[in-house]
Specification:
This protein is 57% helix and 9% strand. The chain is an alpha+beta fold. The chain has a four-stranded antiparallel sheet. It is rod-shaped, with a radius of gyration of 39 Å.
Length: 482
């Protein structure tokens, strides 16, 4: 015959389980707005009797109550991994979109302050000089020099803006590397705490939440992913390289050139391990920034330099074919130079950052197509000014090249913006799926709270019923017939 007092133990476990459920529900409700918090659930398990009965004792055939010692953290490993991947992709595309928007702002197109407008003013001034009734008149010639100077200044400004953007981006990568080092160190520390707590039988759910939130942040920063390890720890990998292994962390640093002019020489900016110097295949924000440093900005910087080089070469070539006001050949005084003040010998040394107008006196513009009969006599011919204007009509000329550059920039920026918008939708859907599993639903928690509350009341009522039965058994049995 089983002991009647065993019912009290069953009721006690029921009370404890209900109290535990209420505590967990309260924890969930308290952290409904906590970033990175995962919903917790108390696991109720029926406790059976012993398999080997003791002498003169028989276990209760209906079990020994309920066990509520285990509290699970509700997570979906697949969605966690997917969230890391999509977070990294979203961050990388956001960087690309922002970088291209800054490049568009540097070129200032379309607009009155853009290079396109400045080129138009140059060709208009040459056209006005060619159609002037007196091509030797200083006003039209001064307008040509002024428009050329504005164009050269505009190119230098655009180039300086691109260089400044490149340097700022590299500084951001350096700051990001320091942030990564702090994050991986924190993840390693939390791994160690989780291992110690697991071995001691202490709860680790909140520690794991903090760690996983840091891993997700690291995914957005450098494209990190995590792999489960022993004792509740995780290993963190970036591009196949392990940055966090248990309680050990590996740092990162920025390597490569720090001058945009030397990009492409085989030592482009990159993130490497510290120590070790192993190049990391990063994603996320760092991946986007490194792409901007090694590809996006250098490409547009190079295209602008090529445009400046082409402009100087063609203007100087036309200048050399004509004659100035005094009848001297324009070959003696090139119209543009590389900013050194010397005639351009090697066009490869010309770039948008140094382009300038060499001719400072209006009369030195070689607007005449034919030389005067007597050297020193004015050249009233404006035929060579027409040749300057015709540069704007060339197939594959400066104008066509710049139009193609602006169109390519607009298309690339548009595609990047569209890709980023699509990726944000995907990332939002993945986050919503993760929240549906791990997030706290107040309606569900309220239902659980009522359920545990009623279970607690029922268990308490069972204690009262058993107490009354024992009172009858102990205090009233054997009184009949006395």
């Amino acid at each position: 015959m089983s002991s009647t007092f065993g019912g009290l133990n069953t009721a006690r476990t029921a009370l404890w389980a209900s109290q535990r459920g209420l505590d967990v529900t309260g924890q969930n409700i308290a952290n409904v707005n906590t970033d990175g918090y995962s919903r917790q659930r108390v696991e109720l398990r029926a406790m059976g009797g012993t398999a080997v009965p003791a002498i003169h004792s028989v276990s209760s055939p209906v079990g020994n109550g309920v066990d509520a010692s285990q509290v699970d953290r509700i997570r979906d490993v697949f969605l966690d991994r997917r969230g890391q991947v999509e977070t990294a992709r979203t961050a990388q595309l956001s960087v690309a979109t922002e970088a291209l928007a800054q490049v568009e702002a540097a070129f200032r197109e379309p607009g009155d302050t853009g290079i396109r407008s400045m080129l138009d003013d140059v060709w208009k001034s040459f056209g006005a000089l060619a159609n002037s009734t007196d091509p030797t008149e200083p006003a039209a010639r001064s307008q040509v020099l002024e428009s050329l100077d504005i164009l050269a200044s505009g190119m230098r400004t655009t180039r300086a803006t691109l260089d400044q953007q490149w340097q700022q981006t590299r500084d951001n990568v350096v700051a990001l590397a320091a942030e990564v080092n702090t994050t991986v160190s924190s993840i390693a520390d939390l791994n160690n705490q989780i291992r110690q707590a697991t071995r001691s039988g202490l709860p680790t759910n909140e520690l794991a939440d903090r760690r996983d939130l840091l891993v997700l942040q690291l995914s957005g920063t450098v494209g990190a992913t995590s792999v489960a390890a022993d004792d509740g720890m995780v290993d963190v990998l970036v591009g196949g390289t392990t940055l966090v292994a248990g309680s050990s962390a590996l740092g990162v640093r920025v390597a490569g050139v720090d001058d945009p002019g030397t990009v492409g020489t085989g030592n482009d900016p990159r993130l490497v391990t510290a120590p070790g110097g192993t190049t990391l295949g990063v994603g996320g924000t760092a991946g986007g920034q490194l792409t901007v440093l090694s590809t996006t900005l250098p490409n547009y910087r190079r295209a602008l330099d090529d445009l400046a080089r082409d402009l100087v070469g063609k203007l100087n070539a036309v200048q050399a074919q004509g004659y100035d006001v005094s009848g001297a050949s324009g070959a003696a005084e090139p119209l543009m130079d590389d900013g050194s003040g010397n005639p351009v010998v090697d066009l490869t040394k010309v770039d948008a950052g140094t382009i300038s107008v060499r001719v400072t006196r209006p009369e030195l513009i070689a607007a005449a197509k034919t030389a005067p009969g007597v050297l020193g006599q004015p050249s009233a011919d404006g035929g060579n000014a027409d040749a300057f204007f015709d540069l704007s009509l060339e197939d594959g000329g400066v104008d066509a090249t710049y139009r193609a550059l602006v169109v390519a920039l607009g298309v690339e920026a548009s595609v990047a913006t569209r890709d980023a918008e699509v990726q944000k939708v995907i990332s939002t859907q993945v986050d919503a799926a993760r929240d549906s599993v791990s997030g706290v639903n107040l309606d569900e928690e309220m239902t659980n709270m009522l359920s545990f509350q009623h279970a607690y009341s029922a268990a308490a009522r069972m204690v009262t019923a058993i107490d009354q039965a024992l009172d009858t058994l102990i205090n009233r049995t054997g009184l009949v017939g006395r």
